[in-house]
From TrEMBL:
<dbReference type="InterPro" id="IPR051311">
    <property type="entry name" value="DedA_domain"/>
</dbReference>
<feature type="transmembrane region" description="Helical">
    <location>
        <begin position="136"/>
        <end position="162"/>
    </location>
</feature>
<feature type="transmembrane region" description="Helical">
    <location>
        <begin position="174"/>
        <end position="194"/>
    </location>
</feature>
<keyword id="KW-0812">Transmembrane</keyword>
<keyword id="KW-1003">Cell membrane</keyword>
<dbReference type="GO" id="GO:0005886">
    <property type="term" value="C:plasma membrane"/>
</dbReference>
<dbReference type="InterPro" id="IPR032816">
    <property type="entry name" value="VTT_dom"/>
</dbReference>
<feature type="transmembrane region" description="Helical">
    <location>
        <begin position="51"/>
        <end position="72"/>
    </location>
</feature>
<keyword id="KW-1133">Transmembrane helix</keyword>
<dbReference type="Pfam" id="PF09335">
    <property type="entry name" value="VTT_dom"/>
</dbReference>
<feature type="domain" description="VTT">
    <location>
        <begin position="31"/>
        <end position="157"/>
    </location>
</feature>
<keyword id="KW-0472">Membrane</keyword>
<feature type="transmembrane region" description="Helical">
    <location>
        <begin position="12"/>
        <end position="31"/>
    </location>
</feature>
<comment type="similarity">
    <text>Belongs to the DedA family.</text>
</comment>
<protein>
    <recommendedName>
        <fullName>VTT domain-containing protein</fullName>
    </recommendedName>
</protein>
Length: 200
């Protein structure tokens, strides 16, 4: 039922609808990006949606949703958020604690890497807000991490075509390989950027 609703949003709004769906996915965990973004990728193969527009709006949706949670963390603090989480559907205080410990362990860069980890991806914005992390740096790290994650899922939908619904199954079965692959790509990009900076 939720997926049908997401499909109707994308059909009505096109690429903007992808952004709206991803924003909601960040704020409401019952809407998984592993379903929304591959569907967007498949839709681009039908000529109804431009793949680059879908990616751009998906990142806008991710960053907007992240800033909403960042603002909550910054304004009401960890203790109050635990209370609020216990009243929410499919989210509880332990999820907030998990994101807090992740941030405490890995620091500000956990915002980037957290965007690549299911279960942490959205909630990592909360401890960043609680810690009053620089909002510009938070936005940049969120945007970069979201671009990588969203691009992988959208192009998975493009590649799988009508079998886009199997993406979540593939992620579950081969999650370790997928995350290692993403980590290697990120490491290579960082290596190239640092190398260029040293040369200049």
């Amino acid at each position: 039922m939720i997926l049908d609703w997401v499909i109707s949003i994308m059909e009505a709004l096109g690429a903007v609808g992808v952004g709206v769906a991803v924003f909601l996915e960040n704020v409401f965990p019952p809407i998984p990006s592993e379903m929304v973004l591959p569907l967007a990728g498949f839709t681009t193969t039908q000529g109804d949606l431009n793949v680059w527009a879908a990616l751009m709006w998906s990142v806008i949706g991710s960053v907007s949703g992240a800033f909403l949670l960042y603002g909550l963390g910054r304004s009401i603090g960890a203790a109050r958020l635990r209370q609020v989480a216990d009243w929410m559907w499919l989210v509880d205080a332990t999820d907030v604690d998990k994101s807090l410990s992740w941030f405490e362990k890995y620091g500000k860069y956990s915002v980037f890497f957290g965007r690549l980890v299911p279960g942490v991806r959205s909630l990592i914005s909360i401890p960043a807000g609680v810690d009053k992390m620089n909002p510009v740096l938070f936005g940049v790290l969120t945007a970069v991490g979201s671009t990588i994650w969203n691009a992988v899922l959208i192009w998975a939908g493009v590649w799988l075509g009508a079998e886009w619904e199997t993406v979540s199954m593939w992620f579950e079965r081969y999650s370790t390989i997928i995350y290692v692959g993403i980590a290697l790509i990120v490491a290579y990009v960082l290596f190239v950027l640092v190398r260029r900076r040293i040369k200049t």
